[in-house]
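Materials and Methods. Structural model of Amidase. The 461-residue sequence of Amidase from Nonomuraea montanisoli was retrieved and submitted for structure prediction as follows.
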Amino acid sequence: MLCYLSATEAHRLMSRRELSPVELLTAVIDRAEAVEPRINAFTEHLYESAMEQAKAAETAYLNGTARPLEGVPVAVKEEHPIEGHTHEEGSLLLQGMVAEESHPVVTRIAQAGGIIHARTTTPEFSCAGFTHSRLWGVTRNPWNLDYSPGGSSGGSGASLAAGTSLLATGSDIGGSIRIPASSCGVVGFKPPFGRVPALPPFNLDQYCHDGPMARTVADVALLQNVIAGPHPWDVASLRPRLELPPLTGDVRGMRIALSLTLGDYLVEPDVVAGTLAAAEALRAAGAVVEEVALPWTRGQIMAAADAHFAGIFGAGIGELAAEHADLLSDYTRRFAEMKPELSFYQGMELEGLIYRPLGELLERFDALLCPTMAVPAFPAEHDGGPLSVNGESGHYMLGVMTIPFNIASRCPVLSVPSGVAATGVPTGVQIVGRTYDDVTVFQVASCLEAALPGIGRPAGL
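The predicted structure was written out as tokens:
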């Protein structure tokens, strides 16, 4: 199916005039028309303008002026505003609001020739690890419709898995790129803080990262190279721009640390099996993989995160909740009502203590391998309340293992598929690099992608 081509292969075929951008976009739109009623990954279709761009891309290929993403269909997370289009963030409070400017990521995709044909769903204000809202309804996992694609970039993950986009954007403040990447069997990259420019005020929040999602590691690298680099609107954006090199997947001689639990996370058997398979694949490829222990506890991680979220994310939502609580989703109100154990300052102290053993570990190892989630996926309509994780009931976010690396925000992290659980939902692993060492995590991910058996595509859609 053309809609499941990788972006790099599609670009190659279009460059050789063996595929038309119009033909590719038509296949993607036809796929969306067929599956969208069941997965509900899109908030807005931009098919008419996209088709005009596809026709222009044909001319660019004929003239030899094709850009890096020329003619490639890209789905953009609705949280990334596009000037002149709605920017509702899944909330009844913002219904009908129109953006006055475009996110730098959106602008760079367009400048590189990418065709933004759709915008993707999120939970309200992107504040959950699942994707449903009172405004847009429930987004479902293409692998098993009873499950969530994860969140908050769940629409992007579901779209990629379903074949309704070749590339997609996401953002990650607690795992919101990596959670859907894992649950949907795709690849997602949390860049280190400042690598990809963002808009105020969240460009100043070290937990917050905008980044690329795709079905292959090479495609994620392609999109990352387009969106990365300093921007005049973002004081935190890094100079100089990092260009990821061609990936060889050579891990011979690398030292990889393996942690199955990141301290005391309760990890379900299917996830453990996928992580061990990834470790064996790296060993077979010539890496030295050594299981290690980290002194973290789930309570410690959540206490630091709660202090941060309450001070930044929760405070912003709290202003809205004060006057319009009745219009908010239950999970959004919980954010506004957070009463963390620690002050924001105490949370920062704890964040420093949490990073230290990881930093020391990464002095001895080139990267860390661990599960992305403790469970394969959340139920599609989970309300954000307690959830059983490997037999123990607790906060549902204890089902994800991503937050430590928002705390360690300068560490690049890639999530790649590791297998498929008994429920039919994929599992994933995270590759965590030293601060700002993006290249190594991409090389390790490229190796894993080639060494592990493919997980195929969702059946039955």
